[in-house]
Design a protein that fits this description.
12% strand; globular; 10-stranded mixed sheet; 12 strands; two-stranded antiparallel sheet; 19 helices
């Protein structure tokens, strides 16, 4: 978007609309148009509602969950133009908890993050003890954001090509490896443009926030009750900035740093540094359980064991499919969630004892999930690249990541390669929203954060807390699991329930002791736990 139209209009105000049509709109004019377009789309959605019925088989949801769609404009500046449909899932409030009747409080809408993750599964959490009180009072509503799943799906590459294995990535790449990755990033960006065309520019955080307001209206809610995790906290905060009078209650679980200067390049550098700390936490846990795993009694011993496995799969991929990339991806999950620690430690231990099967089961590609994984990565890339300016000179990436990798090698370069298409992105870049809610503009909100979270470092929660007046920050001290709402910490869940059910919050901040560390599992159990929500990485 350029300022040409504003300059032209200021000089020759009598130009007819047909002449202006060929000139890109000034950002302020376009934003005003998008505000009007959002209001138009929301009114239409309120009138149409959501016709919930049986979920398509492709969703894999039980009959108790009902599904529907909400129509939104592809481009909010043109609300009468192309329309897309977002898929929505819901299970109604049960109305009872602990044998008592509970009054319904409306819809609780959830987004698991990404960008690129679907929340269609969210109604299923009603079966979990941690969510039963919330499920009694609220309709649990999940949805797939634009581009995700069946919601105007975005693709940048053949899924088989995206998930091909084995592949390798050196921790400290040389010039040839960097050149190869640059070409891959350029090709991926071209693929996004070729497959999506002009629609590519409309996969943004701003449009995700606008879509959320249309969904609110379609559900018949005057004010939104929302819980977002990871990236869901960022576009939730953007929503709160754009539509503060439409907010009832909002929970920000594992907050992205919303400072415009951090979105997104600097946030990714901070994330890579934080993963090094969490990787050390995992290795220390494994060392404490040396009697079970035999990988060494110090974190350094465990690191050497991991590097031994990494070198081995570079020489000969495990099961023919697990190279160093696949190994790293599997152990990166241990940085997100400590309930993966026992399985990952078992995989390392068994591999070094001559049994590669657990590692192959946990790290090997899942052909049936290839399309979903490629779709999620395409949406992730499009949103992050569209949202903000990125360095376009690889020398900047090279300098910053080479320096960081000296002290934080675990995730740094793999994270850089994941985001490098943004250096060559063909669509216009936006300026990030300055998230801000001064006194009196927004109802009190709840921020949840684990102190050692790697995916969304704790500084982001503090930054969001300062930007949203009246917000309360609840910290799980000494813990690092990403996404703590409804997890194993009863203290955190008590604050969550008190807020969503009664609107009660501490004065300004509160602390919870960490949840219990995982315990080693019986040797027979080596597969990963059930599917976790995808999150911003």
């Amino acid at each position: 978007m350029r300022a040409a139209a504003a300059a032209l209009y200021g000089t020759v105000g009598s130009l007819v609309l047909s002449a202006l049509a060929a000139v890109p709109a000034h950002p302020s004019l376009r934003l005003a148009g998008e505000e009007r377009g959002t209001a138009v789309a929301a009114e239409r959605a309120r009138a149409a509602g959501v016709r919930f019925g049986a979920c398509p088989a492709a969703e894999g949801l039980p009959p108790s969950v009902r599904c529907g769609t909400v129509t939104v404009p592809l481009d909010y500046a043109d609300p009468d133009g192309k329309q897309i449909k977002l898929t929505v899932s819901r299970v109604g409030a049960s109305g009872r908890a602990g044998g008592h009747r509970v009054a319904r409080q409306g819809a609780l809408v959830f987004n698991p993050g990404g960008p690129g993750a679907s929340g269609m599964y969210f109604p299923l959490v009603r079966a979990l003890p941690e969510f039963r009180r919330l499920a009694a009072a609220y309709d649990l509503v999940g949805y797939a954001p634009r581009g995700v799943g069946r919601s105007a799906p975005l693709s940048c590459q053949d899924p088989k090509e995206f998930t091909k294995a084995p592949t390798h990535s050196p921790v400290h790449p040389n010039a040839a490896a960097k050149a190869e990755r640059i070409e891959r990033a350029r090709a991926y960006a071209r693929g996004c443009a070729e497959r999506a065309g002009a629609a590519l520019a409309h996969y943004t955080t701003l449009n995700n926030a606008r879509d959320l307001d249309v969904l609110r209206a379609a559900l018949g809610e005057d004010k939104l009750t929302f819980m977002g995790a990871s990236y869901g906290t960022y576009f939730g905060a953007v929503y709160a900035t754009l539509f503060p009078t439409h907010v009832r209650r909002m929970v920000f679980d594992s907050a992205v740093n919303p400072d415009p200067e951090q979105i997104w390049y600097a946030n990714n550098l901070d994330q890579s540094a934080a993963f090094e700390r969490r990787w050390a936490d995992f290795r220390a846990w494994v060392a404490r359980h040396d009697r079970t795993y035999g990988l060494g009694t110090t974190p350094e011993d465990v690191r050497r064991a991991y590097e031994k496995v990494r070198a081995a799969v570079v020489r000969e991929p495990a099961g023919g499919t697990v190279g160093s990339d696949q190994l790293h991806s599997a152990f990166l999950q241990a940085g997100y969630y400590d309930d993966y620690w026992p399985m990952r430690a078992t995989a390392l231990s068994q591999y070094l004892k001559g049994n590669p099967r657990p590692l192959v089961e946990q790290a090997g590609p899942k052909p049936g999930a290839a399309a979903e994984e490629e779709n999620g990565n395409a949406v992730y890339t499009a949103v992050l690249c569209n949202d903000a300016s990125w360095p376009t000179d690889f020398a900047v990436w090279d300098r910053d990541n080479t320096d960081l990798a000296r002290r934080a090698p675990f995730e740094t370069w793999d994270n850089a390669w994941m985001n490098l298409p943004c250096a060559y992105w063909p669509a216009p870049r936006q300026r990030p929203v300055d998230v801000w809610a001064p006194a009196g503009t927004l109802p009190p909100t709840l921020i949840l954060a684990a102190e050692r979270d790697a995916a969304t470092p704790y500084a982001g929660a503090r930054e969001l807390h300062e930007r949203l007046f009246g917000s309360v920050l609840v910290t799980e001290r000494g813990a690092g699991t990403h996404g703590i709402a409804g997890g194993p910490n009863a203290c955190v869940n008590a604050y969550l329930d008190a807020y969503l059910l009664q609107g009660r919050l501490p004065e300004r901040h509160a602390e919870c002791a960490p949840h219990r560390e995982p315990q080693p599992l019986p040797r027979a159990r080596t597969k990963a736990p059930g599917t976790r929500a995808a999150v911003w990485r």
